[in-house]
Amino acid sequence: MHDTVHQKRFVQIGKFYPPEWGGIETFAKNLADGVAASGISSEITVFTRDETVVERVGDVIVDRSHAGRTVSSQPISFPWLWRTIRRARDADVVLVHYPNVLAIAAVPFLRTRRLVTYWHSDVVNKGVLGRIVGVAEKYLLCRSDLVLASTQAYADASPRLRAVRDKTRVLAIGIDDVKHLPQQTLPDAIADFVGETGRIVLAVGRLVKYKGFDVLIHAVRDMPSDTRIVIVGAGPERDHLSGLIDRLGVADRVLLAGRQDDASLQALFQVAAVYAMSSVERSEAYAIVQLEAMAHAIPIVATDIVGSGVSEVSGHGETGALVPAGDAAALGQALTLILDRKDDLLRQRARQRFEDRFTIGHMVKDAMRLLFDRQ
């Protein structure tokens, strides 16, 4: 008789999965695809705003459970919890994407050989709820065999991760290269707004306070009049930001472009002269969008946020400039200096940093080593 070869199973526990896009969702998909390509069974259990379904997306099994409600950014679904326990219970390696408080409730029921937590960010500014969650977080980290962080800077600054530094390692997030993508055309409304100027500043993200888009809008007042800032994204701060643009009289220089499809966003990256990373709080732990900017050879002006990994990702100014968080004057000056440059040195540095550190190939190789001890 021939022995049956055991196929290893890798199960991720996340919040959402494409086509619901976000930084963590992009990372989870790229990791799932990379593991599947190595011959390991790759699965993920997530929430969905649509109907519950199990489907195969490429070589990955995606188990989606309908989330009936959301409380403090946490989807709630007890069927999801049951389905997660059932799917992950006997997997060889289980990776929990955190923050996802409900995922911690599944951990006591898992018999996995290796439990890994990817700590994307601390839960901050949650008051009494945050203290309650803190107890659960300590349990999750104690149970974990390995804890992963996106940057060393964030791991060093996180009180939770400092307590488990002996089993914490860095797994840098990587993204697809863009070299193969075709040239795209700007939507008419955006093309009309930017006109013929080449001084286009791009910013992308959810319109929330910690992104610091208000600082970016203030910064444009002291920049040359032919500067055009395009902010892509939607969110609860839109009305406030729109009002600020009107009050400052900069509607001819700042456009809130709303959500854009992939082709339109690609077109913006292809014409942008500089990327503005204006976040002001360490809720911005990594900012995957910086990788997209570097992949497109776009210089980055990033903010120096204490305890965040943002500046580590952009190379501490190597790919552009680093300015104090919340300083509109410094942000505007740095953006202008880069827009005024005639050489391509910063563009070359940005592209080289992406190729050296942040491709999917680099990420999957490191993940296989950390998760499965494969070299």
Please outline what is shown here.
The chain is an alpha/beta fold.
Can you give keywords for this protein?
375 residues, alpha/beta, Rossmann fold, 2 domains, 6-stranded parallel β-sheet, 15 helices, 16 strands, 21% strand
Count of distinct strands: 16
CATH superfamily (homologous) name of the largest domain: Glycogen Phosphorylase B
Broad shape? globular
SSE class: alpha/beta
Low-confidence stretches: none
Radius of gyration: 21 Å
Mean pLDDT: 94
Strand order of the largest sheet: 3-4-2-1-7-8-9-10
Query: Which percent range describes the beta-strand content?
Result: 15-25%
Describe the largest sheet: 8 strands, mixed
Oligomeric state of the chains in view? single chain
**How far is it from the N-terminal to the C-terminal residue, by CA?**
32 Å
Helix content: 25-40%
CATH architecture of the largest domain: 3-Layer(aba) Sandwich
Note the total helix count: 15
User: What fold name stands as the CATH topology of the largest domain?
Assistant: Rossmann fold
Give the domain tally: 2
The CATH class of the largest domain, by name, is: Alpha Beta
